Amino acid sequence: MSITTHRGHQGDFTWEEVPVLAYKQAGAAPFRDVTRQVLFDDAALGCQLRYFEVAPAGHTTLERHAHLHAVMIIRGHGQCLVGERVFAVGAHDLVHIPSLIWHQFRADADGPLGFLCMVNAERDRPQLPSAEDLLALGQCGLVAEFIRR
Amino acid sequence: MSITTHRGHQGDFTWEEVPVLAYKQAGAAPFRDVTRQVLFDDAALGCQLRYFEVAPAGHTTLERHAHLHAVMIIRGHGQCLVGERVFAVGAHDLVHIPSLIWHQFRADADGPLGFLCMVNAERDRPQLPSAEDLLALGQCGLVAEFIRR
Question: I want to staple A54 with a disulfide (CB 3.0 to 4.6 A). Which of A107, A114, A131, B128 is the partner?
Answer without folding.
Answer: A107
